[in-house]
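Run: sequence + 1,6-di-O-phosphono-beta-D-fructofuranose -> complex structure.
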Amino acid sequence: MVGASEKYMSRLFRDGKAMFLAYDQGLEHGPKDFNDRNYDPCYIIDIALKNKFTGLIFHKGLAEKYHEHFSGKIPLIVKVNGKDNIAKTEPFSPVVCSVDYAVKLGAEAVGYTLYVGSPLESKAMEDFRRVHEEAREYGLPVIGWMYPRGQYVPNDTDPTIVAYGARVGLELGADVLKVKYTGNKETFKRVVQMAGRSKVVCAGGLKTDANTFMQQTRDILDAGACGVAVGRNVWQSDRPDKIARALEALIFENAPVSKAMEV
Ligand code: FBP
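>> structure
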């Protein structure tokens, strides 16, 4: 099959917009991200189900052990590569789940982090090629975490480098590109432009105050992104449902920030 199937794409996007809840941080960052509530995947699943998220991002271990709690209710996105944050080596994220196994787990899309510009990039590109072509056998959408990183990338949110990362994702066949925020709407427009027909979603980043996060989201949407793939700014909040409802208003109702914060 050439390209992702419409069946899966239409599950991941509502009216062409996406609101993904990312919960791969347990592997990527470790316990430092968690408090007494959000360490529990069931807490995250509950947030996803109560609100209008269009996909839930898990590594395979959580997918295996918790999928029964949301199966059929919200699309599962399996992150097929990952690494912990302990060894400070050159950026490279090995494949930890095959596409075949992700499909067995019920994945409706797969995610892969590509550290663009890393000295180990050629190895990653080969892994990405395999993941991409295996996903195509099932028509599964491929979401690329396009994260420039490593000794040749002094600033991973520099607009030029984020735009380059997005272009790499388009060139390599990712259907959706998850990128970091460049700091303003104007530079983010260039990122969306470089993404061509790949769709752009923005990561949330470190938890910040709700207004700042909503303004960031308004900006990326106005710049042409189709939504967010957010983690900490939702589930580290004391009021995750309020944050989720505000995101829904911005993403699906095109609300201004002031209105979104009232809902
Ligand atoms: P956040 O919204 O919490 O930033 O999550 C987005 C994300 O891409 C996660 O999917 C991933 O675990 C994490 O950020 C990776 O962050 P980094 O590699 O920049 O520390």
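>> summary
The domain at 6-260 is CATH 3.20.20.70 (TIM Barrel). The two ends are 42 Å apart (CA to CA).
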